[in-house]
Every structure is written in C-alpha cells, then in structure tokens.
User: What shape does this take?
Amino acid sequence: MDKDILITTLLDRVQRCEDVIEKLRAEFREVKAENTLLRQENERLKQEIERLKEKLILKNSRNSSKPPSTEIHPPKRTQSLRKSSGRKPGGQAGHKGSTLEMVADPDVIDKRIPDYCNGCGSTLSSAKKVFVGRRQLIDLPPIVPVVTEQQLFECTCSCGHTTQGQYSGNANAAVGYGENIESVVAYLHARQYLPVARMSELFNDILGISISTGGISHLIERFAGKTTPAYELIKAAVQGSAFVGSDETGCKVNGKLHWFWTWQSPHATYIAHSASRGKKAVDENFPQGFPQAIMGHDAWLPQLNTPAKGRQLCVAHMLRELEHLMELYAKDPWSKGFADLLRKALKLKYSMDDQKTVCPAPDKHLILARFTELLAEPPDPKSKKAVAFYRRIQKNKDHIFTFLDHHGVPPDNNSSERAIRNIKVKQKVSGQFKAAQSAINFAKIRSVIDTTSRTYRMCWQRSRSSSAMIRLWSLPNLVL
Assistant: This one.
C-alpha cells in the first residue's frame, strides 16, 4: 500500500513538472515571437535612422556638384576640400606688390600757386615761387562721339570707264554705328554680361550716343557674324589638341531648357549652344570625337561615349562625393581610404608639375597598388550610396589616374567649369535668351573672348587688358 501511494505521489509530481515545462515552453514561444517582432522593429528603425540621416546630411557645393546658388542653408566656411598649407594668410615672402606709378609726361599740368598769404592776406603775385611737391590724378576726358562722314566719289578714266568709290562694310545705311561701338557692345554683352536695355541706357546717359535696344541687338548679331572665321579656327584648334576638357550647363531660351557645351584646350575655348544635353549635342559639334586627345570630364554618359585616345575623370568631383559619403557613413573606412589616396596622388602630381615631368614609376606603382586593394575590398553593403559610387569607380578604373602618366593632363575639370560658368553669370545678370540665335551669338563671341584671353594673357597687363581686348576683337582675321 505504501508502495502504491509512493508511485501515485511520484506520478503526480511528474505531471505537475510536465505542466510547468509546458507552461514554460508556451512562455518561451511567446518571448521568442515577441523577440522576432522586436528584431524586425529594430531593423526597420535602423533603416529609418539611415534614411533620416541621409536627409539630414544634405548635399551642398562642398560635398557634391551642386552649385552654391541652389543652397538654402550654405555649409560653414570651415567645411572645405582644401587642406591647410601651413602658411600664414596674406601675401607671402617674396611676393611683388603693385601700386599706381606716376607718369613722366602728364597730359595736363595744373600749377597750384597761392594768390595771397594765409597769415596777413597780402598778395603773393611778386613772391618767389618754389616747387615743393606734385601729385597726379588719373581721369577720363569728356566723352564726345566722333562722327565720320564717308563721301562717295567717282572718276572717269581716259578709256571712258567710270569707277566709283565704295562705302565701308558697316556703312550700309544713311547713318550707322562704327566698329568701335560695335566692339564695345560685344564686350559689354559677353564680357560684362549687361542686358541690352542697360547697355542702351549706358550709351545714352554716359556716352551721349543714342542706340535703341533693337540697334544693340543688331550690333551683337553683326559682330557675331564677324567672329565666324575665328570661331571655326577655335574649333579646329580644340579638335587638334592633345588634351580636351568638356562640360555642359543648362540655360533658358525663351522659357525652355536648353544647354551650353564647352570643349576647351590649354589655348582655346569652344562654346556651343544646343537644345540637347545628350549625344546629339556632341555629334552636332564633334561627330568624330577626339581620337588623338585625352579627354577630361565628369561621368556624364555622352562625354564618356565620345571617342577619345584616353580619359581623365574629374578628381575634384570624386572628392566632393567622397566628402558626402564620409559624412553619411562615418564608420565605413572605404570612402576615407579612397579620398586619402586621391589626395596623395594629387600631391605627387603637383610636385611633378613644378618640374614639368611625369610621375616616377615607383611612386605611381604604390598608388595603383593601393587602388587595387581598395577595389578588392568594397564598402559595407549597407552603405548603399558608397556601394553605388564604388561600382562607378570600378567601371571607370582605367580613367582615374591618367594624369599621373601625362604632364599636360590636369587631374580635374576645373578649366571647363570656369569656361562654362560664364553662361550662369550671364543668366543671373541678363536673364534668359530670347531666341536660340541669341544664345548662338553669345557662344561665338564668348569663345573668341576666352580664347583671346588664354592666348594673349601673358602679354597683357591687367590695367590694359580691356582696351587690348576691344582692339583685338575688332581685327578681321584672328589667328590662333
């Protein structure tokens, strides 16, 4: 009997244990399910944090190709790609300053001789005059238009044939405007970006010359026509260059989005207007591409597809993108590693430029070896934008360090951006172009201006450059 009671007691305890185990199992399943939900929620929150983080770290002109004019909240001035050179700000030791200098033969001499004594008021007309000093003032003379009348005559030869003189090319009406006014209008239009209405006001109020807005537009059209031979020479010069940089920017023409393109070499700048931002614009201007040149540009597809001997992608663009990626993914070392490598290559390039030689093979080998390591170790897959950037670099890996092999190839596309920036300045000052022909005229005149500046920059003094430009632009045959 005692044995049966013991067995019953044991069975009862076993049952109670099984009940407890089952209860614990049920609680475990609930905790597990809750834990799964929490994990899913945690993952969702992580993704939300990353998304908000990307929104919080906005792209700006210092970490992307976004222009400064589009920034609502500009970044701090301390956020820059430039690194400290270690030198103090201001003029450096050995820098030669400049100041206004007196001329030996002034046009007008104004003798400032006192008429009476400041002490007693007596006349000084008979007093001895002693020279004590001089100062010179530079000023403009009164501006008076010069009217030239062309009188036509005819002569009859002894053979009986009568020969008549010819008016100049600009004298195509009873009263017109000469080449100097035409050159100044072109200068104010394409170099100073003045609208035609303000130009008309300037001529009427300051120069005393009555020109309507329609007259100014006609003069711009006339001058642009004269630049056509030089424009074609510029195009040929760019086509035959060993290095060609390219860029494009949008512009408004009669309310519609059009594009200005530039292709430039160290000595020539060719700017063209197009309604397209795609391959059509390239084919309209350089259908054969540049088979003998290395092209420098960003990663825009029509430029990548332009035939060329070689390519150099803009390192400045890459560094700005990497700056943004380092802000987004601070824990991922790939972006910083690649940025450091690019800066090291740039430092090597600039040191070689001083010696006008290409980079030594051992130094170049070390950079390319590190580049290969970075390509073999991609960014964290969770860093989506960094991965997209990595794939683009991997696809164009042969076009990253071309500048190390060629002395005349710059690592960035800054010269093209400077050439195309004038279109943005023109739009800010003057607004949109009213017609496509106006945009074409500006492109032609601006191409001549920039090419002239590049070609003769070393020959001009800054104080004389503007007048030299005006005279040079009016030459009928510009030889590059």
Observations:
- Residues 178-313+415-480 form one domain.
- The radius of gyration is 37 Å.
- Confidence is low (pLDDT under 50) at residues 460-480.
- The first strand starts at residue 154 and ends at 156.
